[in-house]
Amino acid sequence: MADHIKIRPATGTWVVRAGGAVLGESNRALELTEGDYPPVIYFPRDDISMVFLDPSEATTTCPYKGQARYYDIVAKSGTIKDAAWSYEDPKPEVAEIDGYLAFYTTKVTVEEV
């Protein structure tokens, strides 16, 4: 793994909310820290209501994690574009995040409860 990326179990229970709905809650989340960036909470897909998420056309590539696929959140209040992402085939050094989703905290609420 790149020395500047650390992955560990997130302590406690985490919830993600958008458009007035709880999208998921997990006590199996992971916390990924990368360099000087704020920590990112990754939720297991099994703990997220995937019915609210639609794959978008957007992708990005990280030299350390691989290609990210993005998801729109479909809420009563409207669609939140590219609000979540996952590395569906992550590089071996970060294999722990395979099957996990992360969310932009500028677009949804991610918090420990």
From TrEMBL:
Pfam families: NTP_transf_9 (PF04248). This is DUF427 domain-containing protein. InterPro entries: DUF427 (IPR007361), DUF427_sf (IPR038694). Residues 15-105 form the DUF427 domain.
